[in-house]
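Why do we care about 3D structure at all? Because function follows from shape, and shape follows, mostly, from sequence. That is the central idea of this module. The next example makes it concrete: a single protein chain, its amino acid sequence, and then its structure expressed as tokens.
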Amino acid sequence: MGLVRLGDGKPTPQSVPDVSGDGWAFAAPSPTPMRPDAPQSAHDPQEVFDALRWIVRAGAPRRSLPHGLPPRRAVSQRTRRRIDAGCFGVMVRDRRALSPGAAGRADDRTAAVLDSRTVQSTPGSGARAGWDGRKRRKGTKTHAAVDTLGHLLALVVGPANARDRASVAGLVDAVQGAAGAAVEGAWVDQGYAGERARADAAARGIRLEAVKLDGAKRGFVLLPRRWVVERSFARAARFRRLARDYERPPGTVDGLPFLAFACLMLQRLVTVVADSP
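And the structure:
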């Protein structure tokens, strides 16, 4: 954590997560679609990235950025450019290949775990929100696919009143696009079960395997492989901007989770580098 400094060099009481040193060495190679003469290029890219990390981690609006960071308009414009170009997805893909758990493993992911979560809507959600009768809340449903290590592969956002099995085709397409059509099987819950869902996945080369409970159970039960995606959702919950659907543009809802997972992977990589001899 680093303190933001004002023009006179005095630190403000607000702390901002920074990615100095090894962390920025991992984040800097990510592409930024911007002309060299663009107005946003006048600001340090590391400071812009720190500002965006603060927004996503703290869950605060852009107008509440601490003093000493780039203006919110520059942060918003550069963030929109990177989301539209899929830069955060590329960042997650590159860091996924460098993750400690991937050492000695093939680059191609042949298995995935699919699940969904519903987040509460806000006035900015607009028509994107729907009523989830099972969880009894109005919000947006995020369908996520992770590999067997819990790293994010693909993400599809839709209204909460849509059935999970109706999103299988779009989610599987995104998974195969991210993994190079290497995924052969996926573990899912019963919400993704059904003939249509299996047919949509099979047409794209993926076999769905629904994980079910064997009879009635009481208390907490650890389901095979399903816990991986639940752990990924729990880790993403550290970023308060993802706790609700605060975003107005639909593309931002898809892009910020990739940024959150990229930050988690950066933190893990920095820790491994610091502990290495």
